[in-house]
Structures are given as structure tokens and as C-alpha cells.
Amino acid sequence: MEQKLKEKFLGAMVGSALGDAIGELAFRYQEKGHLLTVIERTEKLSYTDDTAMAIGLAESILEKREIDQQHLGDTFRRNFYQEPWRGYASGPPTIFSLVKSMGLSYVEAARSLFGGTGSLGNGAAMRIVPVGLFFHRSKNLYEMAMASAEVTHAHPVGMDGAAIQAWAIAKAVEMDPEEEFPIETFIQGLISFSRTDEIRTKMEKVCDLISKGVSPHVAADYLGRSVAIDESLPFAIYSFLRYPKSFEDCLFCAILNGGDRDTLGAMACAISGAYLGIERIPSSWRMKLENRILIENLASGLAETMER
User: Fold this and answer.
1) CA distance 16 to 132
2) Is 281 helix (H, G, I), strand (E, B) or coil?
3) CA–CA distance, 200 with 89 (Å, rounded to integer)
4) Are the C-beta atoms of 302 and 63 separated by less than 8 Å?
5) In whole angstroms, how large is the CA radius of gyration of the chain?
6) Do 130 and 13 form a contact (C-beta atoms < 8 A)?
7) Angle between the 261-276 and 156-174 helix axes, to the nearest 10 degrees?
8) How far is C-alpha 119 from the chain's CA centre?
9) Sorting pLDDT into bands at 50, 70 and 90, what band is 170?
């Protein structure tokens, strides 16, 4: 079981990074056949801030064995200044600047954004995979996800979306991909775990769309695919539920229907990788992933030191 668990941790971390990297390519290459050719010809699949921040979150968890918001913010800030070209939105650097210039905590700075409401973007959910893995057996999963999100995304909907993504990853880790996937149970779990009307309503819509077999491009229009968490996470989850047994089909569903393609890929493929495990992800893609060894080592470290 422990070896299978490690394979699922590897699948989640590597899967999310590949979803991010290939999703980024899909902004330029929006037809599946063309995109596959580009992937085949590409020597290195480079990730964006989605994976850079997931790496930082994993690093902080491994060092502190918990969500230490100050340490996490410091880790994010250090990594940002080392690689500011990863494609960060304006939120994180603004927070880092406020912390440095005004002496605020990261949470105080995050809460000051958007007129004091905090961000409800998908940036906390896109990186949440280490939380969903390390705390997947914890009764405090929601609180851990919320604490990790609050460092940059302090809006209740932003935190709720991150927690829902963490739950999906945690649940996927525990499930056997050789058995029939319990779609209804999984979706009802998502609905029950949510704490905001915005996310809960969208999870109910996902349930309706999946049960009716609504096609991906129609579902994307209906659920949304923007940078807002309630307009991107639902379609990422839909993509996984539409194709739970195929990493590739889940990925292409998430990234080839427009919108915030790299983050949709990162979120959908984190769940898919957690469910299917590393061996069900194409090896030719894995070998091309930028900083693959670092990402795999972080995943292995989370598996070896997680909360038991």
C-alpha cells in the first residue's frame, strides 16, 4: 500500500505540473493534433507560476510539517524573486511588496487586496496539491487548505475553492483506479465539503452536467473557465469526472476548451494523477518535465513524512 501511495503522490505532483506545462502550450496550439506534435518535438515541458508555487508549498510543508503561514509566505516570496518570469498574476508580488514596505503579515496584505475583500482567483487552488496529499487523512484538511490559501487568497470563495480542490486530491489518493469510479459519491462529497454558496452551487451544476452527459465545450460555457475560482475549478473537476480513467483525455478536456488553460490543466491533472498514479501518465511526457527530479523528490518526501 505504501508503494501505491507513493505512486499516487508522484502522480499528483507530476500530473499537475504537466497539466500546467502542456496547458501553457495550448494557449498557442489549440488543436489537439497540432498540440500533440508540439509536445513530441519539445525537448522540455516548462511550467508556470502554478507549479512554481506548488513547489514552494511542498517545500514549506516538508520543512515545517504544518501550514506555517509566515514561513509559507517567505518561501513564496523567495521563489518569486528567484524566478519572477514564471507568469505570476499581480496579486502575489503586490502582497510581497506590502509585506516588505509596510510590515504587514502575508494574511493582512492578502486581505487588503480588491478593496479589502481579498482575491477569489484560482491561484490558491492551482498550487494546493501538496496540501491535499500531505493532509489527505487529516480531519483538519479544510482548515489546512484554508490556511495555505489565505497567504495570498483571503476571500472566502477563494479559500473554499482551494479546499474543495484539496479534498478532491485527497479523496482520489484513497481510491483504487482498478475499481469502478463512484462518480455520484465523489460529487456529493464535494458538495458536502464546500462552505460557500458560490462553490456549492457550481458543484451541483457539475453533478447535473455529468449525469446528463453534457459535452465538454457546452459544459465549459456553462461552468466558466476564467481566473475566478468559481469559474475555473468546476470545469477542471468536470474534466476529471468526464474522463477519470484517462490522464490524457482529462488533460485535453481541461485545456482545449478555452479559458485559463494552464491552471485548468494543473487542477484537473492533479486529481487525475492522484487517482491513476504516476505509471498511468505517459512516460515520454514525464521525462520532458522541467525540474522533474525536484518535483518527484518533493512528492516522495511528502509521502514519507505525511501526517499519519
Assistant:
1) 12
2) coil
3) 26
4) no
5) 17
6) yes
7) 30
8) 16
9) very high
Q: Which three cell numbers stand for residue 101?
A: 514596505
Amino acid present at 142: Y
Cell of 232: 475555473
Query: pLDDT digits over 195-234, tens only?
Result: 999 999 999 999 999 999 999 999 999 999 999 999 999 9
pTM (2 d.p.): 0.97
Q: Around Cβ 93, how many Cβ atoms within 10 Å?
A: 14
In the chain, what are the domain boundaries? 2-305
* Cα 58 from chain centre: 13
Angle 262-227-90 (CA atoms, 0-180°, nearest 5)?
Answer: 95
Q: How far apart are CA 200 and CA 234, in angstroms?
A: 10
In the chain, the amino acid numbered 136 is: H
Superfamily grouping for domain 2-305? ADP-ribosylation/Crystallin J1 (1.10.4080.10)
> Which residues partner with 228 through β-bridges?
121
Q: State the pLDDT at residue 52.
A: 98
* Pair 255, 233: CB distance under 8 Å: no
Q: How many residues does the chain have?
A: 308
Task: Using the CB atoms, write b or e for 18-51: b if 16+ within 10 Å.
Answer: bbbbbbbbbeebeeeeebeeebeeeeebbbbbbb
pLDDT of residue 306: 81
Ramachandran area for residue 116 (φ above 0: left; ψ -120 to 50: alpha; else beta): left
Task: Kindly report, residue by residue over 18-28, the tens digit of the pLDDT.
Answer: 999 999 999 99
According to the model, what pLDDT value does residue 307 have?
A: 52
Nearest to 166 by CA among 86, 250, 236: 236
